[in-house]
Amino acid sequence: MIEVLHSVMYCSVQDKGRFGVAKQGIPQAGYLDSSAAALANVLLKNNEKDAVLEITFGQGTFKFKTATYICITGANFSPKLNGQAIAVHQVYYVAPDTVLSFGKRMYGARTYVAVQGGIQSEKVLGSRSFSFSITPQTLTKGVLLAILPIQEEHTASFSKVRVSKTHFTTRYLPCFKGPEYAKLTKEQQVQLAKSFTISEDNNRVGCRLQEPLENKLSPILTAAVLPGTVQLTPSGKCIVLLQDCQVTGGYPRILQLSEIAMARISQKIAGDTIQFVLED
Amino acid sequence: MSTFHLTYKPFGNSAILIEWPAKIAEDIIQDIVIFEKKITKNSSVVDTVVAYHSLLIKYTAPVANYTSTTRELQELYTTTSSQKKEVQQLWQIPVCYHPSFGLDLEEMAAKKHCTVEDIITLHTGVSYLIYFIGFLPGFLYLGGLHATLHTPRIATPRIRVAKGSVGIGGAQTGVYPQNSSGGWNIIGKSPVNFFNTKNVAPIFAKPGDRIQFIPITLATFYEVEKEVANKTYTLKSSLL
Fold first, then answer.
1. Is B174 on the interface with A (CB under 8 A)?
2. Strands (E), B42-125
3. Any chain A CB within 8 A of the CB of B9?
4. Residue B185: inside a domain
5. Which of B11, B15, B202 lies closest to A125 in CB terms?
């Protein structure tokens, strides 16, 4: 069991998300930084799709009631076990009643905590990912999360890896043209290739960008959107939709982020700069 | 059928968007529903999203050859389907239009120079086509609202609209499947569950089905509400 000691705003259980149910209006959800989550699972020799904790801005304290192995990836918020600093991207044994906490931000926004065998919280519609109106939305103080007893002793052969910081520092977001890209004027296309600032208005549903584009495009008839879709709103501001977005929307879909771009933008904080780079 | 001119666009690297002429029309949605059913037979398709004039196909992996995949889809569209047409149903949805639920009924009646009864008669007098499901899990986009009932959204959206509330926003009508914020004019409330994750199919209806609102009294509302909670309530439906 993992006990949530400290009630936190943006902390949830996430796996790859819900598939096969989009036509019922159900958001995909799932980890925002899929590469960081996958790395934590791989280092623990878990299944790549196992459920992990996703923690925003290092907000949260957790107690492991039973022994397990853990691995922390993604944003580095100076993790500690019983107050002792530990490294990211490394597997640790945790004894019963060990407390995991976080401190100063070194880089990134979303931290992933994986345990051996994956978190065993309830599956709803094929996934453990938290989602509005389907599961609890956030982890609150006192919640207990089931984990498996230790499956096998973890052999420390390659359990520390070096991860390129570029993932957290690069401004470049490779993306594709969206369905309405061709409706943009030449000027809009030029503006769109410049850099943008991440606004305060960003969460798991989407991330609003500060600099507006000139915009005379009319709304579209409601149609499908995806995590990673960049919508152009009537005010000219762009919204980058993320994993918790609805399945349909009514704003022009001008770009579609690649998977790596979605992982990168989820590690940005308000004030950071991004730049879209079109792939063919 | 299968006579529309469709356009195909890549949407990211693992989805394809198919578009019909950009309008809200019954023959378009029926054509989309038929095509969607043929496409979901393909095991490399993980999700589909039907909307007014479009169909999104999400694949399990990036589409390796967009041109050939699109060509296959085009061929599939023109092949006449040997399978039977999907069974389409008319669902009877009980709605209580009591003023304690229909918060905006009287104001709407005043604006339209008619009675609350007139509004209820018009709202329950037709069946509505389900175009697609979006916005919230279990929210049905319905077509067919009588022109007299078209009403602009309220000036200040409510922070909390109760689950089951029946509303009108512009030319659209619908039921809030869960508590939510919302800007539609609220005219009644249905005791029926529109979204239940405990069911094999969390939503009873699908695009192409129709629903009809059946007016019920306050007493019946509470009876049905109890039956829904006890899982003894069965929604009435008939084949179209």
1. no
2. 45-51, 54-59, 89-96
3. yes
4. yes
5. B202
Q: How far apart are CA B4 and CA A71, in angstroms?
A: 53
Nearest-CA distance A27 → chain B (Å): 8
Percent over 90 (pLDDT), chain A: 84
Are A228 and A257 in contact by the 8 Å Cβ rule? The answer is yes
Domain of B71: which CATH number? 3.30.1360.40
B chain contacts of residue A27, beta-carbon cutoff 8 Å: 137
What is the token pair recorded at B44? 């490399």
| Residues of chain A in Cβ contact (below 8 Å) with chain B | 19-27, 124-125, 133-134, 176, 178-179, 220-224, 226, 228, 246-248, 253, 256-258
Q: Which residues contact A98 (CB under 8 A, 6 or more apart)?
A: A63, A64, A81, A82
Whether B2 maps to a domain, the answer reads no
Q: Are residues B98 and B61 in the same domain?
A: no
pLDDT in tens, B121-177: 999 999 999 999 988 899 999 999 999 999 988 888 898 999 999 999 988 899 999
By residue range, what is the domain housing residue B18? 7-78
Both structure tokens of B113: 């120079």
Question: What pLDDT shows up at residue A157?
Answer: 57
- The structural domains of chain A, with segments of one domain joined by +, span 2-149+158-165, 170-278
Question: With contacts defined as CB-CB under 8 Å, which chain B residues touch A24?
Answer: 133, 137-138, 201-203
**Whether B15 and A226 lie within 8 Å, measured CB to CB:** yes
What is the dotted CATH code of the domain comprising A170-278? 2.40.100.10
Three-class SS state of B212: strand
Spatial contact of B191 and B228, defined as CB atoms under 8 Å apart: yes
ipTM of the complex: 0.92
- State yes or no: pLDDT of A45 exceeds 80: yes
Looking at beta carbons, which residues of chain B come within 8 Å of A257? 12
Residue range A247-261: mean pLDDT, rounded: 95
